[in-house]
Write a structure and sequence with these properties.
By secondary structure, this protein is of the alpha/beta class. Helices cover about 30% and strands about 15% of the residues. The longest helix has 15 residues. The two termini are about 30 Å apart.
Length: about 375
């Protein structure tokens, strides 16, 4: 008898594919060989027209749904949306979720061993862009026998990948679902990323990115980067309702370095946990990919002109208290799609959780996503 809920995909096993053909990168370099780690849920139908690609955000990975073992405490990061009868229904769809190239959860990245040196790539790993990720994902689609995605779905940095798919491979995607994202980062967002990178690169254990050779990690820098990032993922209301000004003890102790407020304790815990599971060079790489994303730059900043060639129908979703990727940035994308005479649906969801709302099972959000996905036609 299964120990998993009826709407869970249950036990899943990550898969790995090795690519020998060099991948030409935007930065001018090429990468080969390389590996991509991914998971699949559901089954590809005979017409191969029911495949859905899930693109992860900055610190995400391939494990989006189900469990790796019966003892795993938490399911994949988007388990609330992926499974039998859920918004992304695995009874209908063949769902693919991968760890992006440059990641630190199995796909080739800075912590992988370079075949040229026999040592970790470290700082020598090439800079990647969202466009590079999409090209690598297209190669994986070829391996899986998917010539056209029913939908490419992502939130935040994942939403940028979904949008890039519609631009780069218009004939290979029928629906683009871009959640809590933007057509490019604001100066403020780039600034937050730079503060996080400075926290990492100025850590004495960073060693110019080659910390693996010294047997250390820039733990303090990673902690600070995560703390800064985590603040931006939450809204003022959500932090206030969760922590307020609650003290860990009954009174202030007037110690400038102690942890006195519950919110301080929470941020330090988040930083500690993150520094033990994420690679510092990958963090630098991912934030730079965010900064560089600006597809309209190729058309003089004209986003409508950039989107003129897409064929996919698009769903754009935003959250009222998301100040990192505000609804105004979604309006920018929606207006450009309308100006380009494309089919687009838009929903702004009332939610107190800030940017992190796209990861949470908020009823109206789930209902809307389910409604859209259920309208996607696939061969029975």
């Amino acid at each position: 008898m299964s120990t998993f809920a009826a709407d869970s995909v249950g036990l899943v096993t990550p898969q790995r594919h090795s690519f020998s053909e060099p991948l030409q990168l935007t930065c001018g370099k090429a990468l080969a060989p390389y590996e991509l780690v991914y998971e699949t849920y559901g089954a590809l139908n005979a017409a191969a027209d029911n495949a859905v690609l899930i693109c992860h955000a900055l610190s995400g990975h391939h494990h989006a749904a189900g469990y790796h073992s019966a003892d795993e405490r938490k399911p994949g990061w988007w388990d609330s949306c992926i499974g039998p009868g859920k918004a992304i229904d695995t009874n209908r769809f063949f769902v693919v979720s991968l760890n992006n190239l440059g990641g630190c959860h199995g796909s080739t990245g800075p912590s992988s061993i370079s075949p040229e040196t026999g040592k970790a790539y470290g700082a020598s790993f090439p800079v990647l862009t969202v466009e590079d990720w999409v090209h690598s994902q297209a190669r994986l689609a070829d391996v899986l026998g998917v010539q056209q995605w029913a939908a490419v779905v992502g939130g935040s940095l994942g939403g940028m990948q979904a949008l890039q798919w519609a631009i780069s491979y218009p004939e290979r995607i029928r629906h683009c679902v871009a959640i809590a994202t933007a057509p490019k980062l604001s100066a403020q967002n780039i600034a937050f990323n730079e503060v996080a990178r400075q926290a990492i690169t100025t850590d004495p254990d960073f060693h110019h990115g080659d910390y693996a050779a010294f047997g250390v990690i820039p733990k303090r820098g990673l902690m600070l980067a995560r703390m800064v990032g985590h603040i931006t993922y939450l809204s003022d209301d959500s932090m206030g309702s969760k922590f307020g000004r609650e003290l860990r003890s009954e009174q202030l102790n007037y110690d400038l370095t102690s942890v006195e407020f519950e919110v301080e304790s929470y941020l330090r815990y988040q930083g500690q946990e993150f520094s033990g599971r994420f690679d510092a060079n990958t963090y630098l790489l991912m934030t730079k990919a965010l900064d560089y994303f600006d597809p309209a730059a190729a058309h003089g900043g004209d986003l409508a002109k950039t989107l003129a060639g897409i064929q996919a129908q698009t769903l754009v979703m935003s959250f009222t208290t998301d100040w990192r990727f505000s609804p105004a940035r979604s309006y920018e994308l929606v207006n450009a799609l309308l100006a380009a005479k494309k089919q687009v649906s838009y929903l702004e969801i009332e939610a107190a959780q800030g940017h992190d709302a796209f990861l949470l099972p908020i009823p109206r959000y789930i209902e809307a996503l389910s409604g859209y996905m259920n309208r996607i036609e696939v061969t029975a």
